[in-house]
Amino acid sequence: MSRFTITPRGSFSLAAAERFFGRWEGTTGTDAAGEALRVAFLVDDWSGAAGLLVTQDGDGVHGEIVAAEGRPEAARVEAQLARVLSLDHDATGYAELGERDPVVGRLQRSADHLRPVLFHSPYEAACWAIVSSRIQQRQAQRLRSQISERLEVDGVALDVWPAPEHLLARAAIDGLPATKVERLHAIARAALDGDLDVERLRSLAPEEANAAVQQLPGIGPFWASLILLRAVGPTDALTLGEPRMRRAAARAYDRPELERDDDAFVALAETWRPYRTWVSVLLRATAAD
């Protein structure tokens, strides 16, 4: 239906992104030949859903929209895919950071120069926060799939999170208590009002964006930070509240104090600028536990 090419600035591995996708939410997968990544998502202007085959060669990352629901614009789909894969940022300085910091360099190589893979939108990230709250990960993933709609991409039905108006039309959702359904509805209304637009959140100062996201019911400081880091996609924001990442840093640098000493961790993270977010994601993605 439509094809486009994104030229990565700096090292990028689609295979690394696919491995991360698969562990994270299981809504994508390679084709039978292992040569293309299937991905489907709700386009973040709520105009519909798009299903793509994504490949990479020496000329860049190629996207082909092979399925659609509604009337999503190709340019919007391309921009959203670029953001989800962190291809909207220049990573040449990230490789240079790996040369300066041998720990970062080793992790980059072991993860095939993984860039953060983001939620498809802040709306979806906020909904996932509500669905996954206080239940086991596998149960949350089953509920997410149950709530999702489907889009067939290259012969495979992939989950697509419902548009805000579709979510609002569901008065009850099997497996979710009424309180969670009410919170999902509030998030859907905020999305329709533009409160969760990526550009709006990017335009705010970090503390303002964090406070704005915490206005959503059921979203506290921890999830507000993760929504901003893992759906808006900055390269250089930092959170102190991810225990697994802090443990990974302590082990990688052989500095036990990094796990609990905020001042020591912040001082180390200063050396990662302007890629503190990316290094934090790299540490968490490569953590052994």
Features:
289 residues; alpha+beta; two-stranded antiparallel ribbon; 15% strand
Describe this structure in words.
The protein is 47% helix and 15% strand. By secondary structure, it is of the alpha+beta class. The strands form two sheets. Strands 1-5-4-3-2 form a five-stranded antiparallel β-sheet, with helices on one face. A hairpin with a 2-residue loop joins strand 6 and strand 7 (156-160). Helix 10 (206-213) crosses helix 11.
Q: Could you list the spans in which at least 5 consecutive residues all have pLDDT below 50? A: none
What is the CA-based Rg, rounded?
Answer: 19 Å
Helix-strand pattern, N to C? Answer: EHEEEEHHHHHEEHHHHHHHH
* Distance linking N and C termini: 42 Å
CATH homologous superfamily designation of one domain: DNA-3-methyladenine glycosylase AlkA, N-terminal domain
CATH-derived architecture of one domain: 2-Layer Sandwich
What is the 3D form?
A: globular
Q: What's the arrangement of strands in the largest beta sheet?
A: 1-5-4-3-2
